[in-house]
Amino acid sequence: MNKKEISEIKKQYTQQRCPVERICGCYVDGEKNKKTLFREAFLSLPEEVFFKYLNIARKVMSGTIGKNLLNMDFPLETESEGGTQALLMKLRYTGLKDDSVLEEFYDNVINSYYYVGNYLILLMHAVYDIPGKTSDGIEMEDASDEVYDHIICCICPVNLAKPCLSYNEFENCFASRQQDWLVENPLIGFLFPAFHDRSTDIHSLLYYNQKPEAPADDFVDCVLGCVPPLTAGSQKETFQSLVEETLGDECSYELVRTIHENLNEMIEEQKEEPMPVVLDSHDVKNLLIQSGVEEEKLSGFDERFGEAAGERAQFVAENVANTRKFEIKTPDVMIQVNPARTDLVETKIVDGRKCLVIELNDSVEVNGISVK
Are 340 and 357 in contact (CB under 8 A)? Predict the structure, then answer.
């Protein structure tokens, strides 16, 4: 799913448009015991509760594609009877009304999701009547060709509120506030099926992770049956290692700066596109060639890429390039440069020593003090 598709579904989760028909939940304690189960018609909820659940659902569609939000495809075997995708299809088909299907899903989550503390498994079943669009992008509410029947799952921590003093309006005094168990924003969740090309795609889903460097691999493997891509941090580390290994002794400041500038240029050129820039093995190889890496240095690059990241792996360009700063670091000195002005720093031999030379303009500060 791209930004436009995610935004279109997310916009439905408001009071006026609300597509949710039913909500179910399972409250699990720190010992993996089911404390309570519930299932309700969504529109019958009290207004204040109604809004809070909608906000939780919207969180699962919030973040950055390639970091917090990951598109995942189902391996073919998961779509057979007894597979993870097949179970999600049952949840969707039954509209969260079949207790045995719900019980099986809850058990899968409890057995594979490791969290120290209490949490709530939330499931929502929703139906979106997809409006048709004219050739120039104008929606036609009365010209729908398809209904997007989907479920949203949210795994939310439930923590005890901190003790504090509060003002008691009825008794006109300050007193110790009663500690309640509070449902917090989801740590992980998913939207199934995916919404691709404004249509249902039962062969993939959108996965959400509030903390992308803690990918909850067991949940992804056992509950979703998908193979997660490398995390944003792993992509950056793998890309950096590939560049270092490929260039070897020729990994110079000037060459790395050129790679950085070319990456940022690619990102800038496609910043209005709904999908982020992604780089596979072929793209990274072309980037290195474009940056001035000699052909002989790239012999065996595809094999090296496959060993480091996987043959079909892709890097999200914004995960491997820093668009906010250009950083130069030694054991004793760190310099940060505006990415658009890397030309201000160069390497030179001064008095027989290899040095970084920084061009200074009229405005220079040292520890906040302007110097001449």
Answer: no
Secondary structure percentages of the chain, helix, strand, coil, to 5: 35, 30, 35
Omega before 276 cis (within 30°)? no
Measured between alpha carbons, how far is residue 10 from residues 55, 121, 235, 325 in Å? 10, 20, 28, 32
For the stretch 176-206, pLDDT in tens is 777 788 999 999 999 999 999 989 999 999 9
DSSP state of 125: E
User: Distance between CA 2 and CA 135 in Å, rounded?
Assistant: 20
Residue 177 CA: distances (Å) to CA of 162, 171, 182, 210, 288: 9, 13, 14, 29, 61
Q: What is the pLDDT of residues 314-362, one digit of tens each?
A: 899 999 888 888 888 888 888 888 888 888 888 888 988 888 888 887 7
Contacts of 146 (CB under 8 A, 6+ apart): 130, 199, 200
Convert the pLDDT of each residue in 48-74 to its tens digit. 899 999 999 999 999 999 999 999 999
Structure tokens at 355: 């040095």
> How crowded is the C-beta side of 319, counted as CA atoms within 13 Å?
27
CA neighbor of 248 nearest in space, from 304, 208, 194, 201: 304
Q: Is 120 within 8 Å of 26 (Cβ atoms)?
A: yes
Output DSSP code: residue 273: S
User: Residue 172: helix, strand or coil by DSSP?
Assistant: coil
Nearest to residue 64, comparing CAs of 10, 12, 3?
Answer: 3
Q: Is 237 exposed, middle or buried (0-12, 13-18, 19+ CB in 10 A)?
A: middle
User: Backbone dihedral region of 291: left (phi > 0), alpha (psi from -120 to 50 degrees) or beta?
Assistant: alpha
Quote the CA–CA distance of 114 and 93 in Å, as a whole number: 28
Q: List all residues 6 or more positions away from 338 whose beta carbon is below 8 Å from its beta carbon.
A: 325, 326
Cα-Cα end-to-end distance for the chain: 53
